[in-house]
Design brief:
heterodimer; A: 114 residues; mainly beta; Rieske Iron-sulfur Protein; three-stranded antiparallel sheet; 0% helix; B: 654 residues; alpha+beta; FAD/NAD(P)-binding domain; Enolase-like, domain 1; Arc Repressor Mutant, subunit A; five-stranded antiparallel sheet; five-stranded mixed sheet; 32% helix
Amino acid sequence: MEVLSPVTTWHRACRVEDVPADGGACVLIDGRQIAIFNFSRTNEWYATDNQCPHRQQMVLSRGMIGSQGEEPKVACPFHKKTFSLQTGQCLTDEHYQISTFPIQIIDGQVYIEV
Amino acid sequence: MPRQIDEAGSGILQRKLSSLGLQIHLSKSTQCLLGTETIEGMQFADGSVLDVDMLIISAGIRPRDELAKVAGLETHPRGGILVNNCLQTSDTSIFAIGECALVHQMIYGLVAPGYEMADVVASQLVGESKEFKPYDLSTKLKLIGVDVASFGNPFAQEPDCQTIAYENKAKGIYKRINVSSDGKTLLGGILVGEAEQYNMLLQTCKNQTVLPPNPEDLILGSRGGEEAGAGVMSLPDDALICSCEAITKAQLCHEISENGHTSVDALKKSTKACTGCGGCTPMVKDLIQAVQKQQGVYVRNIICEHFDYTRQELLDLIRINKLKTYNSVLDHFGKGHGCETCKPLVASVLASLWNENVLEQGRAVIQDSNDRFLANIQKGGSYSVVPRIPGGEITPDKLIVIGQVAKRYNLYTKITGGQRIDLFGAHVGDLPYIWEELIAAGFESGHAYGKALRTVKSCVGSTWCRFGVQDSVSFAIELEERYKGVRAPHKFKSGVSGCIRECAEAQSKDFGIIATEKGWNLYVGGNGGSKPQHAQLLAADVDKETCIRLIDRFLMFYIKTADPLTRTATWLNKLEGGMSYLKAVVVDDVLGIVADLEAEMQQLIQMYQCEWKEVVENPELRKRFTHFVNAPEQKDPTLEFAPLRTQVQAKEWK
């Protein structure tokens, strides 16, 4: 039997300069809110849900980014729940998890696979 | 013993041991042992005889320097081969270590310094430079049930130090501390009969901690009068620290001391404290420190995994190196990418030092969400807007503008506790438009979002009130205009009352002023909030200029020394020496810093700009106020409001 995997496509999300260095921004892709994070010190980019699952608030892109050990993370502005940007796992409360999305930069444009 | 304790201490020890039934013979020179098959007695040089059944010999150290003498090396007249800090003898190609060597005027008869000496010589043999430093011989021991301790330099003498001694022959207690001539640091000391404070004193001595104004408190404890402080440890065991999860002080102390959970994260996991609203986190941090201090552990309140410094240390480093961006601070003194603890802390320090726009030069992304959008985030992700209304005085025309703006953007309006008006429910994208209108009408940012001056509340005072003795509104406006935009470790509030009836509730403020017939009384360190506390009198009947100078100094001293997110009341409670020390610093200038404090405050005041005006006029800053960067005109569709009486409220979250 063939296993059906959900169909994903790469979307052009925004320009590199739309996302502040060492910060985040929110984009709307097919009605879905995605948070994009720009670690300019190491030139690493991450994309996750914009919604914090704790209180269903669309704010993660406004959170402060940083690292815990080697793990890149974002802290929700509401109650400081922090999430790994690599796995989406909540680092301060194991009950919560967010989705992460593949991201790449081509010619100054940010692309996300959703 | 003479190496550890002085004569007075020996006297107390001797008396204590005698009371246990021991006979002590001092300065006896044994001439011969008596007995044939077994020992029966000892005969001393003074002719006296002592009957004994058993003899235990404990020998001291006598440096074996015979070889050195034969070899022509320099030795001390009282024994010991003279060596320098590199442990070289008078012939630099010969080293001497162990108890034959005399270094720093000492023969070290212990094995640990011996190993250290071997290490120093070995390092030199392989070409490294390492010196032998005076070795810490601090010890605490129980001598037949009697506590005896000595630390640092127990024998320091005047004029190199000031000695404070306490002797209680009835209880067999002797304590001595040697304080540096300037009274600031602890050099060493001796404890006999009671050595509870040993760990604390040793840490104070080793870490060169600045002493409280009355260092005798260290060995005597606080003796009535003003308590040294009213920190978190003064709370009863059943005090509720985390009210979200109903965790008491006793539970937390148990987790910290018995289960070794000495970080906020560990306590979050084991008790769930701090996981709700987070309001208890500062108190939980205080508890961790206080419990560890009780256990004799010296705790440095470092910022986070990215900065191995305290806030005060980092503030000094940033100031001296004139750093102005987070990345430069991270490059110089930190590691990793930073986090939600160190970023707002550095942001606050940068603002407190230079007072440049908080959103420029990459500083926007290190601000807490409220500072990043210069507004207060509310349920649902909308923001509230608070224009400054200095002293609570507002014209009818300005009231009308607030009403018009609120209607245009469908904002819920409410009078705040600080005598101004809060407008709730603004979309992030509307904020620059709202402010454009407010600024055009003459309003400025109210910094309700910042760890900064909030309001200076006032009663109407002598201009209208039949009881008023001074013009409290004018003074409140002057103070609010003076300190607006000044950022600190936490928010701070003020109030000015026109008479003793205190209608402005000035004594519940970080600094509060009450008019008198002769001038103004200045109170500091008050707090409302979860642990209300009255402000304390700093100066009485002073004129306005003096009052302002004292506030400048008080605020700047607080800004430079407080732990992160610490209100003035908590800071004052934790300050060694409390209010009397604060007075000594900001009124009597015992540290000689008030001129600097005043100049630094003046600098902050001169740099003030309304940050909302700068955003409204700067397209680069303005474009960050959007929800979707790829659809700037679109608002967050999930943001919903519900009706509330005749206005709106945020939709309840799940």
